[in-house]
């Protein structure tokens, strides 16, 4: 039986590990934290951590989004990004001229994964992010869990 997620399920701190594979074979890895903080409009999402690209020194990276009560996700500047399927599943975003095809997997809740396949003339990569509740971090880097 699939349990649908609601906004309150995401609130709090998470350990985040993200793997990035570009079409040309180059890879990246992000390791950090994500925090969902409640406010009057839903949840403010912020992630911060180290982005490892090839053999270069890690870069400090951050990202911010807004999550609405209906699980609509917005960029920090207010533009619509995508809807999170409450039971998990597919979503998407057209960012002219590139297509973002996403998938949310809540089957391992309270850990979950978000996968994106980005295709277009400017971008071509796959990205998979694994979120594990802070405090349960030992399995955060294991995508098969």
Can you offer a commentary on this structure?
The protein is 3% helix and 59% strand. It has 145 residues and is mostly beta strands. It has one domain: Calycin beta-barrel core domain (Lipocalin), CATH 2.40.128. It has a 10-stranded antiparallel sheet. The model has no long low-confidence stretch (mean pLDDT 93).
**Morphology call:** globular
Q: Report, as a whole number of angstroms, the end-to-end distance.
A: 19 Å
Beta fraction of the residues? over 45%
Radius of gyration: 15 Å
Proportion of helical residues: under 10%
Main β sheet profile: 10 strands, antiparallel
Count of helical regions: 1
What is the arithmetic mean of pLDDT?
A: 93
Work out the count of structural domains: 1
The CATH fourth-level homologous superfamily: Calycin beta-barrel core domain
> Could you please say which CATH topology applies here?
Lipocalin
> What string gives the helices and strands in order?
HEEEEEEEEEE
Name of the top-level CATH class: Mainly Beta
Which structural category do the helix and sheet elements fall into?
A: mainly beta
């Amino acid at each position: 039986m699939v349990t649908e997620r609601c906004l309150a399920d995401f609130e709090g701190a998470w350990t985040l590990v993200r793997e990035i594979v570009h079409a040309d074979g180059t890879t990246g890895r992000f390791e950090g934290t994500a925090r969902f903080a409640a406010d009057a409009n839903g949840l403010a999402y912020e992630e911060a951590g180290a982005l490892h690209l090839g053999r270069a020194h890690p870069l400090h990276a951050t990202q911010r989004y807004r999550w609405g009560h209906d699980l609509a996700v917005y960029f920090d500047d207010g533009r619509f990004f995508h809807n999170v399927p409450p039971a998990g599943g597919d979503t998407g975003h057209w960012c002219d001229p590139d297509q973002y095809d996403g998938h949310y997997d809540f089957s391992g809740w309270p850990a979950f994964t978000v996968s994106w396949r980005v295709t277009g003339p400017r971008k071509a990569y796959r990205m998979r992010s694994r979120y594990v509740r802070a405090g349960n971090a030992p399995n955060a880097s294991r995508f098969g869990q």
